[in-house]
Specification:
Length: 107
């Protein structure tokens, strides 16, 4: 889901950009979420409901094959890493102050 490296996207946006079905897109996103390669950037709430916008945790990757096998090199998406760091610090400060709750960690 490289289309979500520069900005966050909905599943529908990624499905259209990649030319794959929604169900396939959801499966791929869930796999990437489970493996820490994609994150929920934010939840958008409207009168019609709510939906997630996702962002890749990497900005680029390179697949290298040589005599030793296959290797994948990943470049961390600094914008996402910084957002996670800020949330982590805020959560840690809240725990020390006794004000933390699971909902305070939502992106």
């Amino acid at each position: 889901m490289l289309c979500a490296t520069e900005s966050s996207k909905t599943v529908e946006e990624m499905s259209q950009q990649q030319g794959i079905s929604l169900s396939t897109c959801y499966r791929r996103i869930n796999d990437l979420l489970e493996n820490g390669l994609m994150f929920v950037d934010r939840i958008v709430v409207t009168r019609a409901g709510r939906y997630a916008k996702y962002r890749a945790g990497f900005s680029a990757f390179k697949i290298v094959t040589d005599s030793t096998g296959l290797r994948v090199e990943v470049v961390v998406n600094e914008a996402v890493a910084e957002k996670v760091r800020r949330k982590w610090v805020a959560m840690s400060d809240g725990v020390r102050a006794g004000a933390w709750s699971p909902s305070s960690f939502a992106f």
